[in-house]
Amino acid sequence: MAKAIMIQGTGSGVGKRVIVAGLCRIFRDLGIKVAPFKSQNMALNSFITIDGGEIGRAQAFQAEAAGIEPSNDMNPVLLKAASESGCQVIINGKIYANMNAAECIDIKAKAWEAVTAAYDRLSNQYDLIVIEGAGSPAEINLRKEEIVNMKVARYADAPVILVGNIDKGGVFASFYGTVELLKDPAGEHDDTYSDADFIKAFIVNKFRGDRDILRPGLRMIEKKTGKLVIGTIDYTGDLGLHEEDAIPEERLIPRYRNDFHKPIKIVVIALRYITNFTDFDPFMYEDDVEIKYSLDESDINSADLIIIPGSKNTVSDLLYLRENGIETAVKAAVKNGTSLLGICGGYQMLGNKILDPFSVESSRKEINGMSLLDIMTTLDKTKTTSRLSASITSSKWFDAVQSASNCRWNNLRGYEIHVGNTTGDIGLFKLKRLQNTDKNSNQDSLGSGLCNLGSEVMDGSAKDNVWGTYIHGIFDNNGLRTALINSLRMKKGLQPRESTINYAAEKEKAIDRWADILKSKVDICYMLRQVGMDACMKNFTKGLKCRTKKL
């Protein structure tokens, strides 16, 4: 069985996800066979494993940092908000049910069974599991029901490192309050150890300012709790890493003054139930592209490309766009020649109608779409989840894109994750759905062991300057992305670019940069001692020092 260490937080958004990813990269580089794990995740940004299962995008990103293939076991329970009070429950990668909050608590026993079984399978394959908690472990009204924080720490016998975001304020009170609240038993175990005993150390994240001013506070919290502060991580802004819960604040506004003057502007419509906004991360690395998430009419009017992204509630988001005049603004921009793309739920919105005979998303059995593509979608109870390869069929639009670039592209890669069947003028892409043929492939290179599953499927539609597809991750394909940018450049009278950015390589560099920051600011040696892997410390790069001693 694997050793385990757990990263919990004083609240949501304190940095647990990226710290786990950074640790996975650091431990991988030390030669440790490491994997991430989060028992229960609540997020709209998801990913499809090679087994066709749906897990949180964060765990896929963490697995990438560890250099392994994401698997269903890394996130056995996923909750996807579908309304203000309800969510879709996914267990072991597949839809279990749509439930409200109270109903989710009622299935705790089944969910916990899935969590422990998944952890055991993962633990038998790896030497070290880096576990991510959720929210705060000190949400005392949920301590008996939770299956993601201290209950997991106890099951895995994992020392806990508690992370606090000083940028939010009150970090010392959060550390102290968490420890004190967890000293009381939760009532589901003996009193030999309290949950607070599992917390071994603190990390202060997103620090800005003078460390000399902060240092007395660090010493005081150590004295009051008896637990070390093993790292203070400086605020670094947008690291260019995959996000999960929400679009980072830094991406909602231009990062640099010259962002206002980049020749190509892509506006992603900021839907209320936006999913898989990581589809557009590749554009962050393109020097001539400003990518902006917005509902503002002025942004829509000034865009070179408008993208309507995926949605967990397509009908609700479409009605919102319609009722607030955003649909009208988008149609006006398209009429004036602006290119428009819909992905997944956004693709469904562009058609003539959306039918919902089983009330999958709402009580409306039928709703008119934007009527920009000659298609119609019928929502059903079955979700399509699959990795895929795709080739582009004959199309005037794509012929124009192809001619706008020296890049040649074929055998595109991506994944599907949608409810519903779209019919009509379909045929932009020819898809081959893929499945895993090697159950041990998660230990090998990413994407190995995939084969064709069933017959070819047609996908996507195009009409004039509007197109849509179900393919998530389509812009990860370097040639297509560059060709699209070049077509937008030429449309504005600009010369096409000759260079192509390698997105996969840029992601790797970003993860490495973050791992370097983390190991320079956090006492990794302390963590290795906690899990009994002191021998791995000899593999550290020159210049890395252990900054703390055991209390």
Characterization of the model:
- The protein is an alpha/beta fold.
- It has 2 domains: 3-40 and 108-239 and 509-539, Rossmann fold; 264-493, 3-Layer(aba) Sandwich (Rossmann fold), CATH 3.40.50.
- Helix content is 29%, strand content 27%.
- It contains 16 helices and 27 strands.
- The strands form 6 sheets. Strands 19, 20, 21, 22, 23, 24 and 25 form a 7-stranded mixed beta sheet that branches.
- A hairpin with a 5-residue loop joins strand 4 (46-48) and strand 5.
- Helix 1 packs parallel to helix 2 (57-66), helix 1 crosses helix 15 and helix 6 (171-181) runs parallel beside helix 7 (211-225).
- The radius of gyration is 24 Å and the shape is globular.
Shape: globular
Instruction: Determine the strand fraction and express it as a percent band.
Output: 25-35%
Q: Count the E strands.
A: 27
Main sheet overview:
7 strands, mixed
CATH topology of the largest domain: Rossmann fold
From the 3D coordinates, which CATH architecture of the largest domain would you assign?
3-Layer(aba) Sandwich
Q: What structural category characterises the helix and strand content?
A: alpha/beta
Q: How many domains make up the coordinates?
A: 2
Full CATH superfamily name of the largest domain: Class I glutamine amidotransferase (GATase) domain
Mean pLDDT: 88
Termini Cα gap? 28 Å
Please bin the fraction of helical residues: 25-40%
Q: In CATH, what is the class of the largest domain?
A: Alpha Beta
Gyration radius over CA: 24 Å
By DSSP (H or I, 4+ residues per run), the number of helices equals: 16
Residue stretches low in confidence (pLDDT < 50, at least 5 long) are 439-449
